Amino acid sequence: MTQVGARAHLRSETRAAGGPASIPHRASAEFPPRVHGVRAAKIGFSLLVLVALSTACGYHTAGHASTLPTEIKTIAVPAFANNTETYKVEQMLTAAVVREITTRTHYHVVNQIGADADATLRGTVLSTYSAPLTFDSQTGRVASVLITVNLKVVLTDRRGKVLYQNSSYVFREQYEVSTELNSFFEEDSPALERLSRDFARTLIANILEGF
């Protein structure tokens, strides 16, 4: 028998004996553990998603509230206090809150604290901060600015009992800086108005949802 024939005969005997030809069979036997591993990974990922979703509610607020008493019909919203030098920011915030209560709830709103008010919502602007966000790649000038406003609110009934409070509201909004040198338009005003609307929606939602 030639060398080539001997090798062919050896390979034939090896396959018949379950040698290398049986390797695919052994590899297929390893698939189930891998499949189980993939399933376990998917199950673990699903559990992580469920945990994340369950903890997401209330992430945007650090305050606490209970369901408002049924006897509350009228809420006083006096002008927010402003501890910053940002012009009229407290007026924008107060107006946005009043508008949100009027459009989203059945409560009557007054702007003065008095006998007619069943509850009073007070707010204080603690700080405002503006910082460059992006720069023009050609001129190096500031292209956009980020505004940050920190404030606190408290809602009390006519006896002074706290119904809701949050001392660490933080809201941010950005605006584009005009490239027109002759423009005297204050770009930060529309940004503050958008921020005020966002804050008002969040605040009233927090109070109504009892977070």
Please characterize this protein's 3D structure.
The protein is an alpha/beta fold. The protein has 2 domains: 3-56; 67-209, ABC-type transport auxiliary lipoprotein component (Rossmann fold, 3-Layer(aba) Sandwich), CATH 3.40.50.10610. The protein contains 4 helices and 7 strands; from the N terminus they run H-H-E-E-E-H-E-E-E-E-H. The chain has helices spanning 3-16, 23-56, 89-104, 188-209; strands at 64-65, 74-76, 81-82, 108-110, 119-135, 142-157, 162-176. Strands 1, 2, 3, 4, 5, 6 and 7 form a 7-stranded mixed sheet that branches. A hairpin with a 6-residue loop joins strand 5 and strand 6 (142-157). The radius of gyration is 33 Å and the shape is elongated. It starts with a helix and ends with a helix.
Provide a concise account of the structure shown.
This protein is an alpha/beta fold and 211 residues long. The chain is built from 4 helices and 7 strands.
List the helices and strands and how they pair.
Elements: H1 3-16, H2 23-56, E1 64-65, E2 74-76, E3 81-82, H3 89-104, E4 108-110, E5 119-135, E6 142-157, E7 162-176, H4 188-209
Parallel strand pairs: 2-4, 2-5, 3-5
Antiparallel strand pairs: 1-7, 5-6, 6-7
Helix pairs in contact: 3-4
